[in-house]
Amino acid sequence: MARMPSAERRRQLTEAAIRVMARDGVARATTRSICAEAGVSLSVFHYCFDSKQALLESVIAAITEHGITVAREAIRPRATLRETIRAGFQAYWDHVAANPGEHMLTYELTQYALRRPGFEHLARRQYELYCDTYTELIEQLRLLMPFELRVPAHVLARYLAAMTDGLTLNHLVLGDTAVSAAILDMITDHVAGLTETADGDRAHAPEYAGPPLSV
Amino acid sequence: MARMPSAERRRQLTEAAIRVMARDGVARATTRSICAEAGVSLSVFHYCFDSKQALLESVIAAITEHGITVAREAIRPRATLRETIRAGFQAYWDHVAANPGEHMLTYELTQYALRRPGFEHLARRQYELYCDTYTELIEQLRLLMPFELRVPAHVLARYLAAMTDGLTLNHLVLGDTAVSAAILDMITDHVAGLTETADGDRAHAPEYAGPPLSV
DNA sequence: GTCTATAGGAAGATAGAC
DNA sequence: GTCTATCTTCCTATAGAC
C-alpha cells in the first residue's frame, strides 16, 4: 500500500469505519472489517490509532459534524416564516430518507458512548452541539425575518432537536411516509404558532389542513 | 439448583437478562453474565433457549409489554383535559427519571433488532404496539371526556410516540430537568390545542406560561 | 434438568521482519 | 510505515456424566 501521513490515514480509516457501521451496524464493525473496507492491514490500523475506542471517538466527532451540516443546510429563508419552517423540515426529512443507515448510526453511537464508562461526555457533547446549532439557526433566522418567540429559544431548540430525533427513529423503524408527512405538517403549524411576526399576527395558518407547500 | 419447569426458567432468565442489560448495556450482556445474574449455569440456559437470539426475542417482547403498561398507567382522567394530558406526560416522565437504564435498554434493543437480519419485524412490532396503545388511549379518553381532534387520532398517536421517544433519549443524554419541564409544558399546550371540547372552546390555555398544574 | 469441562471461533492487540 | 504471523482473551454453544 502507498505510504501516507498518519493524519490522512486516520481520516481514511474514520470514513471507512462510518461506511461499515452505516451498512452493518456498530456491533458488526470489527477492526478487521474496517481495515478491509479501507484496504489496509490490521497493523496499519494500530499504528494510527491506539485502540478501537480511539477510532470510535474520531467517528463520533465526524458523524456529529456531519449531522450539524445537514441541519444547517436544511434552513434556507423563503417567502414566509411558515414556508421556511416547513421546507426546513422537508429538507432534513429528505436526507433521512436518502441516508437511513447514517442516521441509524448516530443513534447507535450515542448508545455506545453512553454505555462505555468514560465516554458519556462524547454523547453529551454530540447532543449539546445539536441544541446549540438549532439555537443558532433560530437566532440567524430572526435576523433575516424578524419574529418573536413565545418560548425561550433554547427551549424551542431542544424541543426541535428531541422531536426530530424521535421522528427520525420512528421513521427508521416504521417508515410510513404518508403519516410522516402529516406529522411534519402538524409540527410546522405548532412551531409557526409559537412565533409572532412584527405586526402582531401569528405567522401560521391556524388550522391543520393543507398539503406541504410547494417549493 | 432447584428444579423448575422450563417456562418459569425462561421467565427467570428473561428478567435476569433485562436487569443485566439495563445495568450494563446490551453489548456487555453475555450469556455468562446473564446466567450469573440468574444464578444458573450455562447449560441450563441452553436447555431453555436454543440460542442467545431466542432469549433476546423474549427480552424484546417483555420490555415492549412493560413499556406499554407504563404508557397505559400514565393516563388517569383529571378535572380537565389539559390537566389529564399534563399529568400523563409527567407520570411517564417520572418513570423515565426513575428507570433510565430500562428506557435506554429499549433503544438498544430496537437498534439490535433493526440490525439483525430477520429481526426487523420485532422492532416494527414494538413501535406499532406503542402507536396502537396511544391511539387506544386517545379513544378511551374521548369516551370519558368528549372532545374533537384537529388531526386524525392515529397521526396524533404516532406523533406522541415519536416525540416522547425523542424527548426521552434527549433527556437520557443531557438530563436537564428544568428544560425538560418547560418542554413538557409546551407540548401540553400544543396537544391540548389540537383538541376541541363539545362547546366549541379549545381545552387549553393558549399561552405558554404557567408551571405544571398541581395534582 | 442440572452439572463440569471443553470445543471452536472471532475479537482486539502485539511482535518483529522489511 | 507497512507487512505477516501470532498471542491472549472472551464469546456462544455442545458433550457427556449424574
UniProtKB/TrEMBL annotation, chains A, B:
InterPro entries: BetI_C, Homeodomain-like_sf, HTH-type_TetR-like_transc_reg, HTH_TetR, Tet_transcr_reg_TetR-rel_C_sf. Signal peptide: none annotated. It comes from the Bacteria. Residues 30-49 bind DNA. Gene3D superfamilies: Tetracycline Repressor, domain 2 (1.10.357.10). The keyword rRNA processing does not apply. Residues 7-67 form the HTH tetR-type domain. Keywords: DNA-binding, Repressor, Transcription, Transcription regulation. This is TetR family transcriptional regulator. It comes from Streptomyces amritsarensis.
